[in-house]
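Morning run. Coffee first, then this:
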Amino acid sequence: MSALLSHRRAGSGPVLVLVHGYLGGATQWQAEIARYSAHYDVIAPDLPGFGAASDHPGCDRIDGFAEAVIGLLDRLGIDRFTLLGHSMGGMIAQEMAARHAARVQRLVLYGTGPLGAMPDRFEPIDVSRQRLADDGVAQTAQRIGATWFLKGEDAPGYPTICQIGAQASLQAASAALDAMAHWDGRPALALLTMPTLVVWGDSDRSYRWLQVESLWRNLPTGELAVIPGAAHAAHLEKPALFHAILDGFLAEPSETRDIG
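And here it is:
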């Protein structure tokens, strides 16, 4: 049996799974783990090749990441859970929810969209791939991480993002770009019938409004929360507002709604 995927876990109660994105890691969720472990069993995996799982081979398809996270939850004995995915992690969360809909009680899609190619991204994925090959992982994490914040390198959360991103293996960082470039979640959106919240910072340079709107409007039970004055890492830029939005969604009745 392969080694258990590294993860952070705290608390007890209903399960809340937090999935990071490209050049992220479980440690980016420190504030969320501390907050929600009071009422939830919070599990934050490191995706294969990233964070403390940098010794695992990276995945070159989003469904590979999805099955890696499901495999971890299976080995932990977790059946049903609320799922939150950020950025590439939002693509993974969509894939997980489409493939294992009966297991996902609620879904939060944060700073993400339905198409991995990310039209109007701050730079095309092919450019990111070439610059990663030229500059290496650590410098790429610094460069891309600056785009996640309105204040760029001056943002308080920037050093944390750079430190986490630098842990990724070069193989995983390159493979994940291929995974995103080849992924299209639009055909599966109709399968995401669980209560779903889309969260977006209004200055996000990775996913622009047209992609976020497309995601929200094509979900059967989608709600939308826009965080003003925040970019791609809204949970680090506006943590109080991010938590208030998440608190409200988690506290809502469980029946599905169609408000799109």
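The first helix runs from residue 30 to 36. Good start to the day.
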